[in-house]
Amino acid sequence: MFSSVFGATVSGLAGFPVIVETDVSGGLPCLEIVGMPDTSVKEAKHRVRSALRNSGFEVPSRRIVVNLAPAGVHKEGTQLDLAIALGLLAASREIPQNSLTQEYGFLGELALDGTIRPIPGVLAMALALLESGLKGAVVPLENCAEVAFLEQFHILPASNINEVADFILGKKDLVQRSYLNSRSERDGRIDLSYDHIKGHQVAKRALEIAAAGEHNLLMVGPPGSGKSVLAKSLPEIMPDLSTEEAITVTKIHSIAGLLPNGSGLLKVRPFRSPHHTATMSAMIGGGTNPKPGEITLAHRGVLFLDELGEFSSSVINALRQPLEDGLVNITRAKGTYTFPCKVLLVGAMNPCLCGFYGSDLKECTCTEHQRRQYVSKIDGPLLDRIDMCINVERVELEELTDDSTHEAASTVKARVTSARERQRELLKQTGLMTNSEMGPKEISTLVTLSSDARKLLFYAYKSMKLSVRTYYKVIKVAASISDLANCPRIEEEHIAEAISYRQKVF
Rounded to an integer, what is the distance from CA 9 to the centroid of its chain? Predict the structure, then answer.
């Protein structure tokens, strides 16, 4: 007796359908799972047997072979438990092999009592099943909100295997709850602090420009000057994720197992702040079965590296290419995996080892050699990939009590959102989204500079001995400044402000 049921699994950030083929025949009683399963998939035979028995089903004492097709692709995880159990029931004629088992995918981990537990990566797998032409998918109840926005795809929640069996037998309908259709938002930050930041007018202006064009930013200042607070407030003034961006970000966090049960489509941009002891694998991604690292988890959001000078040189150097390309390529024996990493990098560091070089609060105790050694980690190529550098000084008492220059986060966010819309309209034919993504080709064909702006730029290039990469970065930052000012071209004052963010900060 033979049956086939659709399941799915994940490879990298992509889901792909799996046909669970089950054959029940004569011979010594056994249950074998073939088709390149990993240990967690092989262990499904124990979970499935116990779940079926404790749910009132009879497991045949015969030779059972389960093939996971395509057999040449590695499978991992526990999401195939439900499909394997249903395939066994269909092959043993406990449930019929009908249109429901052929039109729907079945995803979920089985507890020993038959309960269907939530799993990571449901969104990626549901999208794969949708693209393969299936009608819908049965998923764990806790995962439903994650994929509820797929209106063209029937998402049916189930709590245990008996509900699914009754659904296939026509005894019960699996109805998606109405509340699951709403797009929920999740805020991964601890607090929203922009409205509570006093002073720091230069730094807040830099944050606004960085948010408008997705420009990498480095803040240098003594301990306690407010660098971390400023960085954590940045997502609050950034535009909400578009639907396309939200799907990608949600898929990444779901596969990484960071999406809480019951969470829907993420709308708030991610904010990741890894500790300076993070390894290269944790930062970039990797492992035997590669998983996304911090730079991918921050995709379309903010990657904040506090105490940048304390990160290992190898980790900092590994960031160069991903920041430039917006992609991470990881090659393993099993294949090559590509993870997106379009991030806004914000770095914060002290000017020296003790933190008080150039400060009027306390005398610096570092030698010149120690200071140079401390800042050398981010010198050169990485610094060249940072668009804006600013000094963050201690806020004076007068600024703490003065609200006259303070703008609400909502006002700044509206201005940033408008600037992003201008960029999207300008770049719609190129496939790019922000000014920071432009290359020399886009700059030469799409960006207009006034004659005075061009003269100032040429003068700065020669006098400041800018690299070619930095030359174009100044133009891109100036373009974001002009977008914020709703100006159709880059003027001299825009170039002047952009150049001011290229001053040496050490």
Answer: 19
